[in-house]
Specification:
Strand content: 15-25%
Mean pLDDT: 85
Largest sheet: 8 strands, mixed
Low-confidence stretches: 529-542, 1150-1161, 1215-1219
Strand order of the largest sheet: 5-4-6-7-8-13-14-15
Number of strands: 42
Helix content: 25-40%
Radius of gyration: 45 Å
Length: about 1200
């Protein structure tokens, strides 16, 4: 900086007739000192002004600095209010580009925003899409990390991990970070931090011998010499970094070599530098006090040109080059200001700046428009935000001949004219610290080749995906295709699925062996279907659901009021739990099975007026998608997928079971009731499970609850997947696991749970398995006992039990399924006389007269009618809709022209109209109607799995969940009836973090869900009076927080009294100091004509003693009951007194900085009540006694104890010795 100012002053063209000066301050890497230095520069250090109007130029025209972002923010916040121009050479925080907050801030170093872009360009160049991130816990690191993550996301790259480097160098945190780096698959690690933050981590990297990582260095440590030792080479060799643009300053080297202590004898810093540089001493003849020779004598004529140090090395000027540009930027701005022609200026009224009364904001105007080129050829200007032209050198850390690390430039990155980032790299010059001597691979997933597409892995970033082959007729001809494209109509995909080729004319002939085989299989399948159709027709009355439907229809037909003169019939089909079979059965029902029609116009009623079913969601979706086009009414008794509530897609679908949307809300209500905020989720990989899981995630998020893990149950029962899921459950801290799945999906997992003896989990069962019999055995009791589940509303159907018992093989001899049912029920056989072909007796003969009432099976048990009860309601809903349709009065119908439906030519959509408005009550007292989406009134029973006397599991009803119109969701539980399968016999705790008590607030843990937080105590004067408060509330002005920080209480009037020991002690110290001052004043008065008093300017000494007495006495204003006048005077009196002291010292000595340091009161800020006053008094007394002892004790010592040295010769002799 001194060189630049000197060079400008010698330049007759830049600032003619103007000489620049400067003040230099060291910030000591401390915010407080840097801020104070900036204030001193801006306000000046003069004590008086010759111009009483306080006009004239400001003390300085601009500030070069500060190099640290945090400090620059603080300084610019204040000086920006006065538009004092500040040009930093090293503060990079992107936040400083905010022109509203920092209107006079400029910089000659690029912003972190560009630094981040530059580093991401390096990652993109080498296709490193999966990188780790480390950053320092300060403004520089935090802002850079935020920008980096945004920039990575912009280009579809991913951050594998993100960790903060601890500023306290906590060893546990350091070890945690190294474990994260070691565990990650990311080979590239990006670091935004200064060396002080990073050194402890690198020491641990060396200790753990962690090689195989490609480090990317930000400009804050890319040129740091700390790591350039042989010790770090195996680990940091090959590091890529970006650095400030290197420059050259002609003449700087000679200027640095011209430094001499004799040039500035008062500059103690130069003397210390010189002694350290040449290992010599200016004092004591080069000897220590004990006479031992330790250093040679400094002559001041040593030659700096013979040294090789960073001071004399100007080959790598980076930060220094930015300082040079900053000084010249201010000079050029001042030059342009001086060139203004009167009447053509840029300010109000076309005026120019007044050179004798320059305003800071006027120079800011010209600084914004600066445009010049340095001697090195670099262009200097600022954009609208005060940022410099963006340019960085790309560096590579390479091994040198002595085994250390040397820095080698391998490229440049800068921002082009169109604001895009231009990246130039010499790849052949880069040293790679890997066995292959090539760039490493750092990706979460390898690229998908043409012919495949990306399929993102669930729960992982976008960079983590699988590559799935394109389907037949689809292609992808690029790498990492997101989706496959369908080939045009006359084209087909080639074998590699990366090109569309013309379709070959090819067909399957009846003469080909394959054609013959397939034709045979087709005819065979047709025959089997016909056979199955006959079997189903004959055995349609056997299952309990089917029997319930038959019972309901029979009951309706016998009811003279519901459908008089109309007899309902039915067809029954079994879907065999197969989508294809269910779909074909529905199509048969919808289109009819007749081969010919007597009515050639094809008119008349449809084959069926409605369909009850299907029981599963996936078949119901398929069936409703087709039959919905014809508005055929479908009423399901068990399909719960919330997707079926979509009236646009499924306009004729109804159901008598609540939607999964309500089931999910019901289950979340149970979780909320027991305060289980941290739960695991398992779901089946079908429409039922997937939609339920999506809704569950949304509902949990709505109430601020969290899903600890989310896993789908494999439909192929893969053992590896099952073991992986059990591992996830065991590793999780969640004690509650929610499952949406059918038993067939869940059973393999539960077998593994038993195998691994995994107890201590609270299972929550969806309605699909809450009443399942497979788990109600002693085998599962230790693991599934205590399970809570929700189930379809249980109902009672009077007369059904008797109807079921009337089932008899003789009623329908052709029904072979009934015969099989009867044989299995009673363990007998109708054929072969009860013998097998080998004549061995194995079964008794079935007579057909066996009594079903003597059996105890699920078939005859009607105490737990749930799905069957829904079948019953579905049949009655269709019957009531048909009844309402029949009651229509001619001319007053709901259809076009007020018409009624024609019962002879009934249209399905007409029945849908009436089904939508159905409203009736069952014999059990349950109300049946449908909402606008065809959903039933939502109600569920809450069940609990409890141990029975035989060691098995019994299901008990412990509550009800329903949704009312006015009250919304209502959960009613009998908690005393619930069995908890834990040692405590109480509900478990399942939270990620325990609740924050009143007096604290939540602080979310980084990278974890909102349920995972720390509890931070409220600050003094802040309170929180609720559990889990998000933030603390500030107490009103006259109130303060109590010790528990949960209430605001009136502030106590507390003061330092003369009666208490502390007050007495401080008063005594004050009076003692006053007396000592008085005594010293008497001594100095009595000896005022002696050399030592006269030599120290006796008038100023008396003024200093008088002001110190006032300092001691002003302490008394701080003690005792506060009054308005004492509060107003105490600081004013001390301020005036201490200013007098400082003024006297400023004239007498050159140690004013030390005095200011020793007198800073920045210690009692956090002291409470009267102790704040006590600490303030102590600071005043300490400062005053310090001055008194430091300045007057030596003089009094000579005057009183060594009068023989109080002579002019003695004093002069001592000074000569010092020289």
């Amino acid at each position: 900086m001194a060189f630049a100012v000197n060079e400008i002053n010698k330049n007759p063209n830049l600032l003619p007739n103007i000489t620049l000066g400067y003040h230099l301050y060291d910030n000591c890497v401390r915010l407080g000192i840097a801020f104070r230095a900036a204030m001193s520069l801006a306000s000046g250090t003069e004590e008086s002004f010759s111009n009483l109007n306080c006009t004239g130029p400001p003390p300085i025209i601009g500030i070069v600095g500060d190099p640290i972002s945090t400090t620059s923010i603080a300084i610019s916040n204040v000086l920006g209010l006065f538009r004092v121009p500040i040009v930093s050479h090293y503060a990079t925080c992107s936040c400083l580009s905010n022109r509203k907050k920092y209107p006079s801030f400029f910089r000659t170093i690029p912003s972190d925003a560009f630094q981040v872009q530059a580093m991401v360009q390096i990652l993109r160049h080498f296709e490193w899409t999966w990188a780790g991130l480390l950053y320092s816990d300060d403004d520089y690191g935090i802002y850079a990390a935020q920008l980096f993550q945004q920039e990575m996301q912009l280009f579809g790259h991913c951050v594998a991990f993100s960790e903060i480097l601890p500023h306290d160098n906590n060893y546990r945190d350091i070890q945690h970070i190294t474990r994260v780096i070691q565990a990650s698959t990311a080979r590239v690690v990006v670091v935004f931090a200064v060396s002080t933050f990073l050194i402890p981590l690198m020491e641990e990297v060396v200790l753990q011998n962690m090689t195989g990582r490609q480090w990317i260095a930000s400009e804050a440590w890319a040129t740091s010499p700390v790591y350039h030792t042989p010790r770090f080479l195996p680990f940091l060799g090959g590091t890529l970094g970006i650095a400030i643009r290197r420059g050259e300053i002609e003449g700087l080297h000679e200027f640095l070599l011209s430094l001499r202590p004799s040039n500035d004898q008062k500059n103690n810093a130069v003397r210390i530098f010189w002694e350290n540089m040449f290992e010599c001493s200016f004092e004591n003849g080069g000897r220590q006090t004990d006479g031992e020779q330790v250093k040679k004598l400094c002559t001041g004529q040593e030659d700096l040109s013979n040294t090789e140090t960073p001071y004399t090395d100007v080959s790598g000027l980076r930060a220094a080059y930015n300082v040079y540009k900053a000084v010249y930027a201010l000079a050029h701005a001042l030059h342009d200001l001086m060139q203004c022609d009167e009447g053509r200026g840029p300010f109000s009224g076309n005026s120019c700046a007044d050179k004798t009364n320059l305003k800071p904001w006027q120079l800011v105007h010209y600084l914004q428009n600066v445009n010049f080129t340095t001697g090195f050829g670099d262009h200097v200007s600022f954009d609208k935000n005060g940022d410099a032209l963006a340019i960085y050198d790309v560096l590579n850390w390479q091994p040198s001949s002595d085994g250390s690390i040397r820095i080698h430039p391998v490229g440049v990155v800068h921002k082009g004219a169109t604001t895009e980032v231009v990246f130039t790299l010499d790849e052949d010059a880069i040293y790679w610290n890997f066995e292959t001597k090539k760039p490493p691979r750092s990706v979460c997933s390898e690229s998908c080749p043409p012919g495949t597409r990306q399929a993102r892995r669930k729960g992982l970033p976008v960079c983590c995906f699988d590559c799935l082959p394109c389907g037949d007729g689809e292609i992808s001809n690029t790498t990492n295709a997101i989706e496959c494209k369908v080939c045009p109509h006359e084209f087909w995909s080639n074998s590699e699925k990366d090109q569309c080729v013309s379709k070959e004319v090819e067909f399957l002939s009846y003469e080909d062996p394959l054609g013959i085989s397939l034709t045979t299989a087709s005819l065979l399948g047709t025959c089997i279907c016909a056979l199955v159709l006959v079997i189903f027709a004959h055995h349609r009355n056997t299952p309990i659901h089917a029997q319930t439907m038959a019972f309901a229809i029979n009951e309706i037909n016998e009811n003279p009021k519901l459908l008089p003169n109309i007899t309902l019939g039915y067809h029954l089909y079994d879907n065999c739990v197969m989508l294809g079979m269910a779909f074909r059965a529905a199509m048969s029902l919808g289109s009819g099975t007749e081969e010919s029609f007597s009515n050639l116009n094809c008119t008349g009623p449809p084959p069926v007026v409605g369909i009850v079913g299907d029981a599963s969601s996936t078949p119901s979706i398929a069936i409703s998608s087709v039959l919905g086009l014809f508005r055929v009414p479908i009423v399901s008794h068990y399909a719960t997928c919330s997707c079926l509530s979509n009236r646009k897609k499924y306009p004729s679908f109804f159901r008598t079971i609540p939607s999964d949307a309500f089931q999910v809300r019901a289950m979340v209500q149970i979780l909320r009731h027991f305060e289980w905020t941290w739960v695991g989720l398992l779901y089946s990989e079908d429409d039922y499970g997937i939609y339920a899981a999506q809704l569950f995630h949304q509902e949990m998020q709505l109430f601020g609850h969290c899903v600890a893990f989310s896993e789908f149950l494999p439909n192929d029962h893969n053992p590896r997947d099952i073991q992986r899921i059990t591992g996830v459950i065991r590793a999780s801290t969640a004690r509650v696991v929610v499952v949406f799945a059918l038993s067939s999906y869940l059973l393999p997992l539960m077998d593994e749970v038993v195998l691994q003896n995994m107890t201590g989990r609270q299972w929550i069962a969806s309605e699909a398995w809450a009443t399942s019999l497979e788990y109600q055995t002693p085998h599962f009791l230790p693991f599934l006992g205590g399970t809570l589940g929700i189930a379809i509303r249980r109902g009672e159907i009077p007369g059904l039990h008797d109807f079921l018992l009337r089932l008899h093989p003789n009623n329908d001899p052709k029904n072979n399924m009934l015969r099989i049912f009867w044989e299995n029920m009673f363990g007998c056989s109708f054929e072969n006389g009860g013998r097998e072909p080998d004549r061995e007796q194995v079964k008794k003969v079935c007579t057909g007269q066996e009594d079903l009432s003597s059996t105890n099976t699920p078939y005859t048990d009607v105490s737990e009618l749930r799905a069957s009860y829904n079948v019953y309601k579905a049949v009655y809903a269709l019957a009531h809709a048909l009844h309402d349709l029949m009651q229509c009065e001619k001319g007053r119908g709901p259809f076009s022209g007020n018409k009624c439906a024609d019962i002879i030519n009934l249209k399905p959509w007409q029945l849908v109209h009436y089904l939508q408005k159905v409203n009736f009550t069952t014999g059990f007292g349950d109300h049946v109607s449908f909402d606008k989406n065809g959903d039933a009134l939502p109600i569920y029973d809450v069940l609990n799995w409890q141990p029975s006397s035989d060691g098995s599991i019994t299901v008990h009803k412990v509550g009800v969940v329903n949704e009312g119109v006015a009250k919304g969701m209502v959960l009613t539980l009998d908690e005393d009836a619930i069995y908890w399968n834990f040692e405590t016999k109480k509900p478990p705790r399942s939270v990620c973090s325990e609740s924050c008590p009143p007096g604290t607030r939540q602080a979310t843990k980084k990278g974890l869900p909102v349920c995972c937080f720390d509890c931070l105590s409220c600050g003094d004067g802040d309170v929180s009076n609720t559990t889990d408060a998000i933030e603390c509330t500030v107490c009103p002005e006259d109130f303060w927080s109590n010790p528990h920080k949960d209430q605001c209480v009136p502030k106590e009037v507390e003061f330092l009294s003369y009666d208490e020991p502390l007050g007495i002690s401080l008063t005594t110290a004050s009076l003692l100091g006053t007396c000592i001052c008085f005594l010293v004043m008497v001594i100095f008065t009595f000896h005022r004509n002696t050399p030592i008093v006269r030599a120290n300017n006796s008038e100023l000494s008396f003024l200093l003693l008088f002001s110190l007495k006032l300092c001691f006495l002003c302490v008394l204003l701080f003690i005792g009951q506060p009054e308005l006048w004492t509060c107003q005077l105490r600081h004013a009196v001390f301020g005036i007194s201490f200013v007098l002291c400082v003024s006297s010292i400023l004239v007498k000595t050159m140690v004013v900085i030390a005095v200011f340091k020793s007198s800073r009161p920045e210690a009692y800020v956090s002291s409470p009540g009267k102790y704040a006053v006590a600490v303030e008094i102590f600071a005043i007394l300490a400062s005053s006694f310090g001055l008194l002892v430091a300045i007057f004790a030596p003089k009094c010592y000579i005057i009183l104890l060594h009068p023989e040295r109080n002579t002019k010769n003695a004093i002069m002799g001592r000074e000569t010795q010092k020289k």
